[in-house]
Amino acid sequence: MTQPSKSVADLRILVAEDESLIALDLEAMLAAIGCEVVGPVGSVDEIVRVAERQEVDGAIDGALLDVNLRGRQVFEVVSELTGRGIPVVLTSGYDDASLFPAAFRHLPRISKPFNEAALRRVCASVFLDPKAA
């Protein structure tokens, strides 16, 4: 018997965003498309703690990480997340990959302000089919 295909509405997504209004907006958009939001968390250290808890609390299907959380860049934890099998999408007010360290320029990203249709597309393409990212 084959497993039913997972849809965007079945995703558990870790949200890392330190601006409360942006976090609320992102959380509302994800909820509107049926996703379960893990977080939002507002610091790099919280990202790590949530990732470590995932085995207990349930698998995380993907992470939307603001590049800069309270003055600290998230790049130092990206490898830990991807090593745990959690695909990552970077979020930023800047849509210029050259501003990121070279090792992370290949990562999928979505620009702020968020658009619900674009958010749905990136979640589907990256979190449902991580090999496509």
Q: What does this protein structure show overall?
A:
With about 130 residues, the protein is of the alpha/beta class. It has one domain (about 10-130): Rossmann fold, CATH 3.40.50. Helices cover about 35% and strands about 20% of the residues. The strands form 2 sheets. Strands 2-1-3-6-7 form a 5-stranded parallel sheet. It has a two-stranded antiparallel ribbon with strand order 4-5.
CATH level 3 topology:
Rossmann fold
Strand neighbour order, sheet with most strands? 2-1-3-6-7
Query: Helical content, roughly?
Result: 25-40%
- Approximately how much beta-strand content do the residues carry? 15-25%
Structural class: alpha/beta
Number of helices: 4
CATH classification, class level: Alpha Beta
Q: State the separation between the terminal residues, measured CA to CA.
A: 28 Å
CATH architecture annotation: 3-Layer(aba) Sandwich
Which parts are unreliable, with pLDDT below 50 for 5 consecutive residues or more? none
The topology string of helices and strands comes to EHEHEEEHEEH
Integer-rounded radius of gyration: 14 Å
Q: What sort of overall outline do the alpha carbons produce when their principal axes are compared? A: globular
- How many domains? The number is 1
Largest sheet: 5 strands, parallel
Can you identify the CATH superfamily? Response regulator
